[in-house]
């Protein structure tokens, strides 16, 4: 999944970016409100983490502009303001959740995962497709009773497909959500990762879990066959 972080405190932003990337997310960072809104308007993100106190344009203004543009990306607010009135105003303006500074990075990552799951229509951290089970907390995969070892990128591709059941996902969409803005140099590797995934998930006399639709993309088989 791909996340936009809008945060002007350089050290805090670096720690958040490092933690999110270690957790398997692609992350883009903007250090002021104007750049943050410009990123958000591209509608490429699965979540926006937005600080309130930003140079140029404050976080509440960015949030209001995002919702005014009919963008439905979940927004997690980072705020040093703990007053009940200000939090209510943020939620009413379209925020999905908030964290008061200072916060625990582990809690931020857990809330990030929960918001993305809910936005994809899945409350449970365990995703299932056919006889495939994907634990998004432990980042483990099994098919039936068999545990399957995947590389970090293979896992991220599989989890993204699992969040889009029945949908045909193009290579471009996978690239946009798996990588940040330097993703162009990865453009030739998706096919290789999909091929490895199909091989690792294969079971004798069973259809492939991942379908390849020529010139269209990929689809995770949701039902057992």
What would you say this structure looks like, in words?
The chain is about 40% helix and about 20% strand. The chain has helices at about 10-20, 35-40, 60-70, 85-90, 105-120, 150-160, 170-180, 190-200, and strands at about 1-5, 25-30, 45-50, 75-80, 95-100, 125-130, 130-135, 140-145, 145-150, 210-215, 215-220. It has a 5-stranded parallel sheet with strand order 2-1-3-4-5, with helices on both faces.
Provide key terms for this protein.
single chain, 225 residues, alpha/beta, five-stranded parallel sheet, 8 helices
Structure described in brief:
With 225 residues, the chain is α/β, with parallel strands linked by helices. The chain has helices at 10-22, 33-40, 59-68, 84-92, 105-119, 152-162, 171-178, 190-201; strands at residues 2-6, 26-30, 47-51, 75-79, 97-100, 126-129, 132-135, 140-143, 146-148, 210-213, 217-220.
